[in-house]
Amino acid sequence: MNLRLALLCTALLLASLAIGPVDLLAIAQTDPALARTLFVELRLPRAGLALLIGAGLGAGGAAAQALLRNPLASPDVLGPASGAALGAVIAGYFLGGGVLGMAMGSLAGAGGGLAILLALAGAGSRAGGTTRLVLAGVAVSTLFGVAINLALSLAPSPFALYDLMFWLMGSLADRTLPQLLLAAPLIALGLALLLRAGPGLDALTLGEDVAHSLGVALPALRRQVVIGIALVTGAGVAVAGNIGFVGLVVPHLVRPFVGHRPGRAILPAALAGAALLLAADIAIRLLPADLNLKLGVFTALIGAPFFLWLIRKGL
User: Fold this and answer.
1) What is the pTM of this model?
2) Residue 231's CB: how many other CB atoms inside 10 A?
């Protein structure tokens, strides 16, 4: 399965590099330097970020669902993405931190959001069940949403307000190579932490006592997963804004193929998340230009009905 998903990601990555408003092959025949610049500065960052952010959100969703042992968990539904957005807004637009400052603010906000969620929902405990987890997620998201709205109302200028609103919708358009180089190592580190946590998350499905008897250090495992999710979510939000529901949808698509083992689902969820976001970004570019549909809005149109379907099933 992983090989097939990897091949699908490769095909979609090549398609993303080839599709755009201008024909790079035609330009290359008359101005090779311009074609090379457009490819390196525009096409490559956009495709690369779609691959990396999708992989991070997919793996983060699978890890969140495994840690909380709840199929409704994901970074964007339960608070960390909102925290990352708030951190990026404060650092980038009010503290003048620039791209690097937004990244650091996003990481801090994502980690803080997930830490609050774990405290409210009781990570590793099934006592609260789905209802408690969802209520905790709604509380965290609402808290950060109010703070973001306050930040918007205090925007230093109308132009800043306009930029903030469109950035929060989530998009990969006009992203640059420095942004790709900034996000790539952070997401890669987060993915490595989440993949390394896989065996411990599998053991956790047997219960905390059994996992402890198998040698799993539960506090260290929780910290590892929290840091991993904060890295992939924070880095993604810092460069692309809020892109929701990828982390909710893809773990459910891949888990039946790995025997419903949450730890083993992290890698295929990462590959499926990358494929989903690449395909969504390609679809956005194929729509009429006057629609100007944002990527975050498009993924929400896909994910929101899926979320409602999960609730209807009683998961």
Assistant:
1) 0.88
2) 27
